[in-house]
Each structure stands twice: as C-alpha cells, then as structure tokens.
Amino acid sequence: MKKKILIHAPNLSTPGGKQTYFASLLDHFTSDIDFFFYGAQGKKEGKFKVLTRLFSDFWKFHKKLKENKYDLVHLNPSMNMKSFFRDSIFALICRINGTKMTIFWHGWQWEFEKKGYTADSPLFPRYIW
Questions:
Q1: How far does the chain reach from its first CA to its final CA, in angstroms?
Q2: Residues near 2 by Cβ (< 8 Å), separated by ≥ 6?
Q3: What tens digit of pLDDT does each residue of 1-51 get?
Q4: Which of 54, 56, 94, 125 ranks highest by number of CB atoms within 10 Å?
Q5: What string of DSSP letters covers the chain?
Q6: Which residues pair with 8 in a beta bridge?
C-alpha cells in the first residue's frame, strides 16, 4: 500500500532552491504525494499582509491535515530565524493532529545556529516536537 505524504513547500512554480528540488523529483515519487504550498506565492506583501497570510497558512494547513489522513508530513525549513519559528508552528500543528513528520533542515545560517538553536540545545526541543 502506498504511503500518503504531504510535502510542505513554497509553490513549485516560483523560483527557488526547494521548488527546483521538489519539481525535479515529481516523476520519481513512489508514494502518493500531495503538496501544501505556503508563503507569498511570488507576490510582494506588506507587513500586515504577511501576518494575515501566515495565520491563514497555519489554518489551511490544519484543515488539510484534518481532512486528509497523511502517513507523513515532510517539513523542509531553512536554518534561519524566520523559517525556524514559522515551521515550528507547522510542526506543532502536525503534533496536535497526531500526524507523523520529518524535518529536513537546510540552508544553514551559522549566526543563527550560534545563538543556540541546535538539536543539542535546551531551546531546540521547546520549539520542535
């Protein structure tokens, strides 16, 4: 039986490393793959719009998990402050819904890591479950 997997990523039609990576894999997946696209979708946004869209993304993600029974969610954040805290909320939503997840960190910002946000730091488990 094929696994049902949700990949959390920016829209594949917008330019970027994650998008190019996942787009190149589309023909090679053997599981039932679905995407949840987050972010501005290539549009410019003011601060208020960013905030309202972010909460909208969290709500839509929660609804998608509730409406579909995924075997796994793949989160793919960059190791920087914005992605760390944003995707910690997405991880919490997975946990609240009882959905297994895997987190693949990439795009390391060494200055952010030096602030103590590493897997062996006591701060890390408080944000990532």
A1: 28
A2: 30, 31, 32
A3: 788 989 888 765 655 566 556 666 667 677 788 888 887 666 677 888 878
A4: 94
A5: ---EEEEEEE-TTS-SHHHHHHHHHGGG--SEEEEEEES-TT----HHHHHHHHHHHHHHHHHHHHHS--SEEEE--BSSHHHHHHHHHHHHHHHHHT--EEE--BS--HHHHHTT-STTSTTHHHH--
A6: 36
